[in-house]
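We emphasize that the prediction below concerns an isolated chain of 76 residues; any contacts that depend on oligomerization or on bound cofactors are therefore not represented. The input was used exactly as deposited, without trimming of termini.
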Amino acid sequence: MSRNVSEDTRYRVIRWLDYNWTQRPFSVPDDVILGVLPASLRAEVVLQVHREPLSRVGIFTDCDPVTAVTALRHVT
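Result of the prediction step, given as a token string:
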């Protein structure tokens, strides 16, 4: 985030984001949070959220987690 923004302003933005997160951690929509995560971490979160329902679907029981998440991504 250096794009001609002063160090002081960058620091203030970081402080503001940190403050808002600690005061209202769930005020940011899930899709926004997931959108900024690296793909591997996003896949891990999605897998954990959907692990229980996936375990009840026969085609996913013998599937590795990455394949299951990939399949879900194409369906949604």
